[in-house]
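Before relying on records like the one below, remember that each one covers exactly one chain. Contacts with other chains, cofactors or solvent are not represented anywhere in the record.
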Amino acid sequence: MKSTKRFPFMSIAVLAGLILVVTMSSCAVRSHFLTSSVVPAAQGTVEIKKDKNNNYVIKIEISNLSPSTRLTPPRNAYVVWVVLDDNSSRNLGQINSNEDFMPKNLNASFETLSSSKPVKIVITAENDPGVQYPSFPDVILTTDYLNIKK
């Protein structure tokens, strides 16, 4: 007859592994963009987590985002903004929405770091991707307020 004494140790190892996976995955905050009145077919998510240097890693995935040149009026770029606790906004960079760069299924992704805690993520359509202040009438996508623990 075979001994089954090592199975309890296997169960403990599996349980410890599951706890580790759950703990690591719970560190990220995931939010969906609200439905856009400008580009209603666009859908996307934002995932934010802290890295080992206490920076916020911001990952954005969007589908059905038409090129900014097809908007009315046309714009040159989609710009990602982080809104902070004091309601100020910071330009995080440009999402490549040129028809030459976007695949036929109109998917776009963006990843960056922020040293400041995000309260909200906003994407606007801009003529100049290096602008310092967002054109809030040209908001394409926005999250609701993010619940990120310090």
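The longest strand covers residues 43-50.
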